[in-house]
Amino acid sequence: MPSDELIEFWRERHLGTLTTLRADGSPHVVPVGVTVDEAFEVARVICSGGSVKARNVRAAGAGGARVAVTQVDGRRWSTLEGRAVVRDDPESVRDAEARYAERYRVPRVNPRRVVIEIAVERRLGLR
């Protein structure tokens, strides 16, 4: 069960980073907005379907890509690790956009938008 401190930290407005792996195994790290469900089971990142991060996740295949999302605020930090897949169905995209709007702001219109959906397997830092 996540602590109240962890829940609050992921509700505050912070940008994070998403780390995916390139075909050669090297890390690709980019700043992103991240949302996490209430149970800390699923984290979501919205992006364009042609972005490098989406392509890296898709390249991993049906089993999903190993990824990590991290946010830092001074000495407080949290990393969520897990397997990611790309979702492009309208329902998943709408849900992720609504979650993003609640935490950050209404996202700009992007007809190529997809969701990188991360099944959280491990939490590091704040718990």
TrEMBL record:
Transmembrane segment boundaries:
none
GO MF annotations in UniProt: acyltransferase activity; coenzyme F420 binding; oxidoreductase activity, acting on the CH-CH group of donors
- The yes or no answer to whether the keyword Transferase is present is yes
Superkingdom of source: Bacteria
Q: What do the Gene Ontology cellular component annotations say?
A: cytosol
| Residue span(s) of domain Pyridoxamine 5'-phosphate oxidase N-terminal | 4-122
SUPFAM superfamilies, per this entry? FMN-binding split barrel
Q: Which UniProt keywords apply?
A: Acyltransferase, Oxidoreductase, Transferase
Q: What is this protein called?
A: Acyltransferase
